[in-house]
Specification:
Order of helices and strands: HEEHEHHEHEHEHEHEHH
Oligomer: single chain
CATH superfamily of the largest domain: Thiamin diphosphate (ThDP)-binding fold, Pyr/PP domains
Strand content: 15-25%
Number of helices: 10
Bound molecules: thiamine diphosphate, iron/sulfur cluster, magnesium ion
Radius of gyration: 19 Å
CATH topology of the largest domain: Rossmann fold
Strand order of the largest sheet: 2-1-3-4-6-5-8-7
Shape: globular
Largest sheet: 8 strands, mixed
Length: 291
């Protein structure tokens, strides 16, 4: 890790990018997300050795290689499970999870649901290109109805998942939506998500320029709109109503942020340790008693 003194303390950081050059196709939306997270972490003022980025498998899941923090490239759809375990074991780490629409909502759909409802203190960035990019262009859970791909040559007959709606209704306490081509707004949302205590979910409309050419920057511009004036992100009914009334349109900004709400999942794990009901808690008590 660069810019860290021998004592392990941070001096002055220029950014969080690693020396690894991203392997994404030129023009891929994920570059904008990388830039935005770099900026948000820099503004957060956290040291790189206090951050871990966990991912599944997919182009968007290559993220940990390109950041100079701890990283974990796990199995397809399993990033959130690994991130939950890491946060429970190392609560002081800032844990960021990244993934794609397939990783998050198809093979990883079960983990998505349970991580949201548990309100784990993570920031999860979903790069939503409405396609399986890494495997060269199959229909994904967010693909539009009628889309013709290699896996649906006669057109997709399924209704797409709305990721923000899925996160909000499953129990995430921070839900935002941005685009990879408005890096300034995205960095602000990510910073707010990183500062939020509890499950922060940020859906990012991010074009795959190679295997989903139809869903380019203009397509996502047409598909999204700014938050309506006066939207109150602290109101759960207002957030639900907004997503319901938006239909296929994707509102951009902080859609929901629960204030003074439920304690995150990790707090309850700590409470368990004082009243041992599981093997790890018993073991830790024994270790404390004898060492
Ligand atoms: C268990 C398992 N099943 C299938 C795959 C193949 N696979 C790799 S990435 C991927 C989908 C990637 O799409 P997405 O999550 O949307 O990420 P993107 O590449 O679009 O960023 C699939 C099906 C795998 N690696 N492991
Ligand atoms: S295949 Fe698509 S998602 Fe993957 S790096 Fe290329 S443009 Fe990005
Ligand atoms: Mg995808």
């Amino acid at each position: 890790m660069g810019n860290v003194t021998d004592a392990g303390t941070e001096t002055k950081r220029a950014g969080f990018r690693s020396k690894n050059r991203p392997t994404w196709c030129p023009g891929c939306g994920d570059f904008g997300v990388l830039g935005a997270l770099d900026r948000a972490l820099t503004q957060l003022g956290v040291a790189p050795h206090d951050v871990a980025i966990v991912a599944g498998i997919g182009c968007s899941s290559r993220f940990p290689f390109f950041m100079d923090t701890y990283g974990f490239h796990s199995a397809h759809g399993r990033g959130l499970a690994v991130a939950t375990g890491l946060k429970a074991a190392r609560p002081n780490l800032t844990v960021v999870a990244t993934g794609g629409d397939g990783d998050a909502l198809a093979i990883g759909g079960n983990h998505f649901f349970h991580t949201m409802r548990r309100n784990v203190d993570l920031t999860y960035i979903l790069m939503d290109n409405q396609i399986y990019g890494m495997t060269k262009g199959q229909t994904a859970p967010t693909s539009r109805r009628g889309l013709k791909t290699k896996s649906t040559p006669r057109g997709n007959i399924e209704e797409p998942v709305n990721p923000a709606w899925a996160a909000l209704t499953a129990g995430a306490t921070f839900v935002a939506q941005g685009t990879s081509f408005d890096m300034n707004s995205l960095a602000e949302m990510l910073l707010a998500g990183l500062r939020h205590r509890g499950m922060s979910f940020v859906n990012v409309l991010s074009p795959c320029v190679t295997f989903h050419r139809e869903a380019d920057k203009q397509y996502f511009k047409d598909l999204s709109s700014p938050l309506p004036e006066g939207h109150d992100p602290t109101s759960y009914p207002a957030a639900l109503r907004l997503l319901d009334e938006s239909g296929d349109q994707h509102p951009l900004g902080i859609i929901y942020q629960e204030r003074d709400g439920r304690a995150p999942y990790g707090d309850d794990v700590d409470a368990l340790l004082d009243h041992p009901t599981n093997e790890r808690a018993v073991l830790e008590q024994l270790l404390r008693r004898y060492f």
